[in-house]
C-alpha cells in the first residue's frame, strides 16, 4: 500500500465510519473492490465491522458479493466477540439478503464454506422467501455445499433442486 494512503487515513479528522458521497464508508468500498491491505489499515484504525451503508449492508455483504474470502475472514476475525459475529452473519440488507445470500448468488465456494463454518444459517430466507441454495445453479458445487449445510441444520437430508 502506498505511504500516501496511510498518511491520508492518519490525517483524516472525521469519523472513519462516516459515509462518503455515495453512502458507503471507506471500509465498504475497500471490501467491495477487494483491497485487502486497505481493509487491514481501516480495521487497525478502528473502522467498525458492523457499520451499515445506505442499503443496510455491512462490509461483510460487500466482501461476500465480490468473493473475497480473505477479506471476509478478516472481518469475521475482527469482530470483538461471538455475538458480533452472529449479528454480522444474520444482518440483512435492504433487499433482505444476508452475507451468505450474496456469496451464494456469486457461487463463491470458499466464501460460502467460510460463512457456514463461522455459523451462518443456510436455512435463512431473504425477503423473497429464498434460501441461499435457491440462488445458485442447480446441481452446482455451491448447491451441494448449501444443501449439505441445510441438511446438517435440520437433521435430515435436504435437496433444493
From TrEMBL:
InterPro entries: Ankyrin-SOCS_box_domain, Ankyrin_rpt, Ankyrin_rpt-contain_sf. Pfam families: Ank (PF00023), Ank_2 (PF12796). Gene3D superfamilies: Ankyrin repeat-containing domain (1.25.40.20). ANK repeats lie at residues 22-54, 55-87, 95-127. It comes from the Eukaryota. PANTHER family: ANK_REP_REGION DOMAIN-CONTAINING PROTEIN, SOWAH (DROSOPHILA) HOMOLOG. Belongs to the ankyrin SOCS box (ASB) family. This is Uncharacterized protein. It comes from Datura stramonium (Jimsonweed).
